[in-house]
Amino acid sequence: MNVLVVEDDPVIGKSLSKGLTEAGHNCVWVKDGKHGLEQSLSQRFDAIVLDLLLPGVSGKDVLREIREAGVRTPILLLTALSAVEDRVTGLKSGADDYLVKPFAFPELMARLEAVCRRTVDRPPAIMTNGDIRLDLTTRRVQRGDLEVDLTPTEFGILELLMRHAGQVVTRKMLCEHLWDTDWEGTTNVIEVHINRIRKKFDREGASSIIQTVRGRGYALRAI
User: Percent of the chain having pLDDT more than 70?
Assistant: First the structure.
């Protein structure tokens, strides 16, 4: 792995750099948020170890700017903040995992390897189908040069359809994707949202971008 360590504590930083190198990985160690952000945006890393309490630019700001720039490198936060709300804030801001100081190096390595494995199966940050462009990072959707305003539910439906473009996506799949549950209730709510998406994307005189497959579900038409 090629790992960026952003840590101002010289003892921890040196220990991480030494441990990663001895484990056969390449390590770049920087000691403040400004240089950590510059490295994150200018080089490709397999993982980033980011301390939250940094001089100058805070780790929280570094994390936010990395994700706003569309960089999806796995990020493991190091924090002395053990409160649940601090950890939740970090994860919601785009971190993949966290480790509370003090920590054991083998656990850090195990967590790094785990977040790297998980990111292999991530969908790309930008998905396209013809002139439709969906950005998972910024949650923006465009058709051609025009931005399309979608509700969170509509965005989730379009995301799943684009992941399976040209394939049938069942109503049950859509319900479970949207509400993370084994949905057994009525699915006519999906039809309502599908029709709203069609109104926002379909062009007069052209076939709908979303085709209904009777008795099965929906399929996004290749454009």
Answer: 91
Domains of the chain as residue ranges with CATH: 2-120 (3.40.50.2300), 126-220 (1.10.10.10)
Q: Which residue has the tokens 């998905």?
A: 127
**Residue 153, Cβ density class (10 Å: 0-12 exposed, 13-18 middle, ≥19 buried):** middle
Task: Kindly give the pairing relationship between strand 146-148 and strand 169-170.
Answer: unpaired
The closest of 74, 39, 37 to 57, measured between CA atoms, is 37
| Cβ contact 153:188 at 8 Å | no
Dist CA 61 CA 160 (whole Å): 30
Helices assigned H by DSSP within the chain: 10-22, 33-42, 59-68, 84-92, 105-120, 152-163, 171-179, 188-201
pLDDT of residue 61: 93
The region of weakest confidence among 1-5, 148-152, 175-179 is 175-179
* Collapsed DSSP state (helix, strand, coil) of residue 130: coil
The full length of the chain comes to 223
Give the closest residue to 70 by CA, choosing from 15, 138, 133: 138
Contact present, 38 and 61 (Cβ < 8 Å): no
Strand 2-6 with 47-51, pairing: parallel
